[in-house]
Amino acid sequence: MISSMPSQTGGALTWVLDSLRHRGVIGSLRYYARELRDLLVDLTPERRKSRFGDIDFDFDHNVDTTWARISLRTRLREWLSGGQYQPTEPAAFRQMLDAIPVSLDGFTFIDLGSGKGRALLMASDYPFRRIVGMELLGELNAVAAQNIAHYRNDRQKCFVIESHNGDARYFDFPAEPTVLYLFNPFPRHIWREVLANLHRSLIAAPRPVYVIYHNPVHEDIFAAQSWLRELRRTGQFVLYEAGS
Ligand SMILES: C[S@@+](CC[C@H](N)C(=O)[O-])C[C@H]1O[C@@H](n2cnc3c(N)ncnc32)[C@H](O)[C@@H]1O
Q1: What is the structure's pLDDT at 109?
Q2: Are 101 and 172 contained in the same domain?
Q3: N or C: which end of the chain has fewer CB within 10 A?
């Protein structure tokens, strides 16, 4: 199921103004220069070829979630917005979900920065009550919608999957037991807003919430939240239990 939610994605000018506000002029110039250098390296034939290393999932399940088939226009929009698409690797995903110490039956799975929807699809192999994604770039979210419609897997257990186009800062957390999945989607300044929203929502409606932070490069921001209790840590992810 794909339902609608108000789309608040800003756009290139908003993203650059956000960056100027949070990083300042010099900080933004440095940031965009560094990201542009990475983007140019990524365009080399060798790098493009290596990105097809993630294609097995797509063959197995009749979808398009690969990192390799991202247009230059989308890469430029990623560069301006400060996020970068990369799908979660299936074995890593299973390891992260297996670390949650309770049955997932009845929980809602939320992926902020859901890209082409691979984590949403993989989550549907578990007995979640429903699955919700939010992705900033409309073109990636459109592919996610196609993927949800075409996904094939005999092990699928949850069929209520929504994918929304919008900025995660405006995500309205449902008052439901939640597994929140975050594959390092945002630049630094966005994290504080997203975590503050989650905390507000938990105070208003206390409930079980587990947060998986995959590739935790801004982990210091999480460590500063006294309402997040670390349950498990590996080199790849940190699992937290949230309390109000
Ligand atoms: C590393 S990818 C993860 C994709 C997906 N979660 C998965 O695991 O397969 C991060 C995604 O976050 C998106 N993103 C970046 N900033 C965002 C924001 N403010 N709101 C929503 N999505 C955002 C990027 O466009 C990118 O597609």
Answers
A1: 98
A2: yes
A3: N
CB of 87 within 6 A of ligand 1: the answer is yes
137 CA closest ligand 1 atom index: 25
* Residue nearest (by alpha carbon) to ligand 1 atom 12: 113
Q: Which one of 73, 86, 140 would you pick to mutate in the ligand 1 pocket, going by the greatest count of ligand atoms within 8 A of its CB?
A: 86
Structural domain contains residue 1:
no
Global pTM value: 0.91
Q: Which atom of ligand 1 is nearest to the CA of 87?
A: 9
Residue 134 Cβ < 6 Å to ligand 1 = yes
Q: Tell me which of 33, 58, 81 is where a domain ends.
A: 81
Distance 92 CA to ligand 1 centre (A): 17
Strand-pair category, 130-135 with 237-242: unpaired
Confidence class of residue 39 from pLDDT cuts 50, 70 and 90?
Answer: confident
pLDDT at 144: 98
